[in-house]
Amino acid sequence: MERTTRHTQRRTQALALLFLLGAGIGCATTSAEDRERLQRQTRARIDLGIDHMAHGRDAFALREMLQAVELSPEDAEAQLWLGEAYRRKGRLENAEPHFLKALELRKDYHAARLSLSALYLQLGRYDAAEEQAALLAADPTNPVPWRAYTNLGRAQLEQGNYQEARSSLDEALGFRRNHWKAHLNLGILEAKDGRPREALEHLRRVLEIGPRPVARAEAHYRTAELYVGMGNRMKALYHFDQAVEYAPRTTWGKQSEEYAKLLR
After folding, report:
1. How far is 130 from 163, CA to CA, in rounded Å?
2. pLDDT tens for residues 42-96?
3. Looking at the predicted structure, is the pLDDT value of residue 9 above 90?
4. CA-based nearest residue to 243, from 262, 225, 264, 263
5. Residue 101 backbone phi and psi in degrees, to 5
6. How far apart are CA 23 and CA 34, in angstroms?
7. Residue 99 near residue 86 (C-beta atoms within 8 A)
């Protein structure tokens, strides 16, 4: 009888252990499934937000990215895109913490460092922009070195370091000959350095490459300014009018319209 009782107890304990193990396995599976489902939901929010950005729906993009970060605050990609959404909305100070968080979560996140350097350029924090862009330019695993060198060159240009800026921008063009931002920055640099013909050549290259309308308007505006300085009123008017045509509601379009009125 005692032997039977001990056998029953052992069997009960074994069944209890199996139940606990089974419960543990079940919880792990459920947890993994939950994580996968959460990841899918986060990615869906990010993808939808990116689509909104691509179509100029920046307010909707910001809403989606906020929800993505709420779902997965430790997701580096979600943090990056929330920063980009804030940057698109002009809320620059709100963008910085999210770029920094993305880099904290993924130290080799090239896209986050590039966005951070661009943000610092927008904020006029040129020393910080130079630091971030230099780190990225020196990283041999960076897949888009021309963008890093372009940001680096712009930061150096804004600080008056023309020789260093020219070298960095030339490096950018060495990686990608038709990178319009590098040509635009070289156009600005050459104009500031008193070399109008060299500046015009770079701005001509920008217009040949054909970036988005706002960038084309800037190139036309800066070209027109150079022609004003060279005393060529007709060419200046042509480029001011082109800037207005491409981006009438932007700073470049409005300034061009006002400048053209003075010349007419």
Report:
1. 15
2. 999 999 999 999 999 999 999 999 999 999 999 999 999 999 999 999 999 999 9
3. no
4. 225
5. -65, -40
6. 16
7. no
Task: Return d(Cα 239, Cα 220) in angstroms, integer.
Answer: 5
Torsion of CA 133, 137, 138, 143, to 10 degrees: 130
The 3-state DSSP class for residue 160 equals coil
DSSP SS3 for 177: coil
216/253 Cα distance (integer angstroms): 10
Q: pTM for the full model?
A: 0.84
Q: What angle do CA 241, 219, 171 make, to 5 degrees?
A: 170
Give residue 211's region: left, alpha or beta (phi > 0; psi -120 to 50).
Answer: beta
Distance separating alpha carbons of residues 128 and 37, to the nearest angstrom: 38
Cα 191 from Cα 221, distance rounded (Å): 13
